[in-house]
Each structure stands twice: as structure tokens, then as C-alpha cells.
Hints:
It contains twelve helices and 25 strands. The chain is an alpha+beta fold. Among the domains are: 249-327, Serine Threonine Protein Phosphatase 5, Tetratricopeptide repeat; 410-613, Neuraminidase (6 Propeller), CATH 2.120.10.30. The strands form six sheets. A five-stranded antiparallel β-sheet has the order 1-4-3-2-25, with no helix packed on it. A four-stranded antiparallel β-sheet has the order 5-6-7-8, with no helix packed on it. Strands 9-10-11-12 form a four-stranded antiparallel β-sheet, with no helix packed on it. It is globular, with a radius of gyration of 28 Å. The two termini are 43 Å apart.
Amino acid sequence: MRCPECDSEIPAQVSLCLHCGAMVEKTQPSRAAGRSEPGTRASRPASAFRLRTAFLWSLGLVLLLLLGISAGVYLGVRQGEHDRVQRLTEEAERHYQRGLARLDQGNYELAQAEFEYALKLDPSHPLAGEGIAEAEAQRQAVPVPTESPEEPITHDLFRQAEAHYGAERWQDAAATLTSLRQLDPDYERERVEEMLFESRYRAGMALLDDDDFELGIFFLDRAVALRPLDEEATTQRRLAMRYLEALNYWAIDWEECIERFEEIRREAPDYKDAFGRLHQAHVRYAEAWAAQGEMCQAADQYSEALSLLRTGTIEAKQAEAAEACRAATPTPAPGLVDTTPITRTALPPGFSTGRLAYPVYDTAGGIYSVYGVFADGRVEKLVSGADQPMWMWHGDALGFRDRVTPAISLLPAMGERTRPLVGGSSVAWPTFSPDGQRMAYAEMDSEGTWQIYIVPTDGSDEPRHHATGRGPVWGPTGLLAWTGCEADAPDVCGIFLDNPDDGTPGTRVSGSGNDISLSWAPGGNQVAYMSDHTGNWEIYIYDLGGGFRQLTDNSAADGLPAWSPDGSGIAFVSNRGDGWGIYLMGPGGEDPRPVLSLGANLPNWTMQRLSWAP
């Protein structure tokens, strides 16, 4: 099996690509020999980065040059994410088309499998769900031939189909004719095929006219299996697809949503409510910018809305935003520390010790930032354009993945400037030795494989390769843990534990390459991690003394565990509530409760992490 994102070879039992982090097909994990496993039970950056400056003219040119360099790097990261999403979308469409072919061959189980895989690759695919429903319906509807020579069932089906066809009940006619073809492919072949194409065509066009886009496109796609569509149907299908794609980005990625509706307006200005949607998208995008305090960007979007439709309310908002923009001070360069506190009225419930660093996705800006919640009640943005935070074991320093530079960087202390430790666009997951003198991290090589390196934090030596794997985390006793595969058996994967100073290879202690996001208990005797053994992401514990325990059991996704510094609890991320949030539970999984909201979006969340320190 190969990864749909980077085309790397994927071990048979793995559902998360070990090379690039993409989701792939899931199967049950194998057990590690001699170990007990847990019991098995039944994202695109999309903002236009504009900067405002009111500095003195002598300093303005220098600032613009520096910001131009940073923006260029950021746009490169953005393009890479765009390409990744595009590859997944194209692969999902290929499986969708295979499902259509299977349907027309009467292979309904294989058709359903193709549609389900398309939906796994692209959960927003507008048509795969219709395919699954159709495959299930056809499996249940195929009649069983009887031994009645006077009244063969094929004759009866044909008469039923003609009745539906004559009454212009196109969907009923299409379903009956499909059943007839499955029962006897040669029965009145030419007439049945003619009626079937016409029924699918007419049903599809009628559904599109009634704004039932998903089902309408699906019927037209099934008609294409018999013969090409005419120009009118081809145009209507294309417009409907663009409309659905635009709606998929509504309130998630306003820039992309606007671009899609603008394409529709250029081709068919009067199509459905696309014009009104485009106007409203500019308004909503402006409001999102204003909520972030970015009034120049808000003013630009209000102006775009006014160019489509002028209203007194929007004119007033545009003038207000433009005035605020003129009076604003320059925006700091990305990557500089922003320690402006977020106002809080009370401590997060259950949080009473240490400091927890966590990623937050800015939908308007299209990029992550790292925040921190402290036991004294403060919640602060620690660094912008960053994710994968990791505190040093002692002191105030925070490591993180800098998505703007790009690099792994260090924030020495609150209020200080960050400094890069290791550069590169594919470096990830920094973690520090107990004494803080060394850092381990992962970097993807030219073959698309994650490799783990160790480097002095003071930069006194070059990085040293340590192992093949991803997601390293250094424990308080000096052991290093990561997720990887056996060197001589690339399909045998799991969690590895190792003393990086004894010169011997690490030992694999679990049996799935999807055992990821590791977190050491403060005593160094347990490792919390997330896995999808049950088909859903849950949190587990591996005890170094032997044995595994499952801590969460919820239909939502639970993951990214982080031990509290006193061992009294575990923080984790879940979408079990209204959107994503940080939850806290006891060390045995008891009493899970919400701590902080992370908003509606957490793209590529399995690549993130939480970090909790004293």
C-alpha cells in the first residue's frame, strides 16, 4: 500500500503515514511479541498577509524588506499544504469514479468500498455519500429470480420501468432499470440502456434545478457511464460542483470560498444565489479580520463587498475599519513574541498547577499559534505562526516548530525574542533532554522518511542521526521514546524506547505504527499515547513494568495526551464537545472535563501536541 499524499510505501497495518502524517487505510494493529496490547473493542493556509506600517520612512523600507522575506517563506509553506490537499482530493475523485464503474457492473459491495475510501480521503467529498447510499439500496433491491415460466420477473420489471418512464418518475425508472440490468444484462439490451440513460439524465437535471446538487450530480455521473453528456448537462454539472466546493469552505476558509464563488460569477453571473453568497462571504471575511484586530484587511474586504452591492450598513463598517487602519501601529513581524494577555475572569476548571502550552488555529490567518495557560489564571499567546510546543524539563524555555521561518526555534523566556535551533521546512517535534543540554527532533529525508536527530541546544555541534522514526519525546529518566518500525521488518511498527547514550538500538514495546503523540509521566515509569486500535482515536497508557490500559472510550476523537507535572492528571484534545477543546482527566481516565476551547477547526490535528510543565 502506498501513501495517497507522498506515495511512500506504507506498512500493511498502518493507517497514519509514518513519512508525512497523512491518513491512509486502517486495519487492526498486530501485537508485539511477548507484550500485552490494549483490548480491541467493537487544512490550508488561506490568508492574504498584508502588513501595515506607520514607522518613520527611514525604518519603513528595512521593515518591509524583512517582512517580504518572511511572507515569501510563509507562502511557500502555504503552497505545500495546498498541493497536499489537492493530491488527496484527486485521489478521492479517482476512487469515486471507480465506485461508479462498480455500480454499473453490479458489484455493489466493491462500489460501496470505493465510495467509503473516497470519503476517508476527502471527508468533504460531496458525492461519495450518495454513492454509498445507492450501493446499499441496490444490494437490497436486486430481486431473486423465480421459477415462474408464465410471468418471468424480468418481464415484470420491464413493465414497471416503462410505467415509471412514461409517468416521468425518473428516479424510480432508473432504479428499476438498474435492477433489471443486474438480473439479466441481455434483456432488451438496447431499449433498457436507452431508457436508463434518459432516466438518469432527466433525474439529474431535475434535481439540479431543485438545488439538490449532490444527488443531481450523482445521477448525471451515472448517466456518463452509458454515454457522454450534452453541453447543457456538462455545464450544469460543472457549476453545481463549483457551488458545492465553495459551500464546503463557508465559514472555514473565507479566502478560498470567495475565490470559488468568484469563478462561478465569472462564468454564470446569475447562477442560483452565487452572487449574494459572494457578497456575504466578503462581509463575513471582513468581520473575521476585524475580530482579530486586523482592521486594514477588514477594510479591504468591506470594500470588495461594496463593489458588488452597496448598502449603508456596509459603507459605515468600511469607513470605521479604514479609519482604524490609518490609526493603527505596525504589526510585529511573524515569529516575534506576543505576550498580550487574553482577558479571563476565572481559572480554567480543574487546572491548578504548572503551565500548559497548546496550539490554536487561526481560521482567518490560516496558521497555528502557540498559547499558554498558567496556574495563576493567565492565558497568553506565546508565539505566532508556530505549533508543536515542548517545554524544557527545567526553566522557562519553550521549543516549538516555527512555521514562518521555517525552523525549530526556542523561546528562552517570556518577553524575549525567539532564536532558531535547527532550520528546515520539514523539521518537527522538538524535545529536550532532562538537563536541557540536547534536543531531539524529527526531519523528513529526501525519500520522504522521518529520521530522528539529536543536537546540542547551544549549537556547539552538528545534528547526529539517531534512529528512523517520528514524534520523539525525551523522558525525565533520560529515555527517549518515538514511533517507528523495525529496521529489518518495515511493516512491524510501534513505540520504541531507548537510552540514547548506551550505544544499543531501541526496543519496540507496542505493535502499531499508529501509536503516536507520546507523553512521559513525571516519574518516567509510564507513557501516554493516542492510537486508533478501535477504529477511533483514543488515549492509552503503556506501563514500563508491563501492560497497557485504555483511558478514553468516546465516539469523538481523543488524543494529544500530556501528563500534569505532578502526575495528578492528563490533559488531552477532543472534539467531543461543541468544536475542539482541551480536556482534563485523572491518571486512570476518570472524570474527563473541559478546560479550554480551541475553536471549530484544528487542521491536521494528529501532528500537533500539548506540553505541560511545572
